[in-house]
Amino acid sequence: MENSSEIVFVLQGLNETRTNKHIYFVVTLLGYLFTIFVNLTLIVTIILEKMLHEPMFIFLCSLCINGLVGASSFYPKLLLDLLSDVHVISYAACMIQLFIGYSYVFCEFTMLTVMAYDRYVAICKPLNYHSIITPRTVVKLLILTWLFSLCESIIGLNLTLRLPLCGFHIEKLYCTNWPVVKLSCVDTTINNIYGYILTFSHVSQAVLILISYVNIIKASIRSPADRNKFMQTCLPHLISLTNFTITLVFDVMYDRYGSSSRLQNFRTFLALEYLIVPPLLNPLIYGLKMNQIRRRIFRIFRFRVSALK
Hints:
Blueprint: E1 8-11, H1 21-48, H2 55-72, H3 75-82, E2 88-90, H4 91-124, H5 129-132, H6 135-161, E3 169-170, H7 177-181, H8 189-220, H9 224-257, H10 264-289, H11 291-308
Helix pairs in contact: 1-2, 1-3, 1-10, 1-11, 2-4, 2-10, 4-6, 4-8, 4-9, 6-8, 8-9, 9-10, 10-11
């Protein structure tokens, strides 16, 4: 194995963009800027409006911050590659991108689980909501979510860092764990076992979310008020969760078991979807669907416009 500071990985998947790379660059840049704009708008609105200082909106604010982290782990490098004829990344930059990207994925899943728990208590146990979801509980859940996700990523990163590599071609647009692990010269059983542990952990979270929503739907049938609460707060969450889970599962399965020579465009789509769509979709569907946020966003913009006149 070469010294890690001398290793340069070759990324794949952007060869078809060479003829129109400036158009792809502009579209990608606009997408990144719009993602930053909609997430920051939601974050700033929740911070400035005291009426939105409730657990549900605080969790949403954390979700948007995580979305910015995920987008920023991917977009800047992609923008550089779109302007370059050579798509390479250093070993250190690859490990940083891998770490931030997986921290985003793990945090997203855990945060969606926490949000499902919050909605379950709000709809199924409304009289006990404020005694269960206290400010102290909210802080604990946020700290647990971020720390748990970081710990998962740190362990996975250290397991990857120990591996000597015999190849330098990553069959993806960006660095993720398994494509790098597959380049190893030695046995990767420990990495594989840890991958299955992570899979079991997050599948368990998905089962908990499913159980929560079964109970939420049962409770929502009881009255029009509960149905309205479900449509406004739970439906956006369900859309976010479904989109994120399906694309992530397909991408992970394809990384491990898919053929590198087949369905390249489909694989590229899967690799991009869970990094591009959730950070863009989450603030839009929550901001448009939830009346409290939508009204306050319009009020803030109207105030800023009138102040400029």
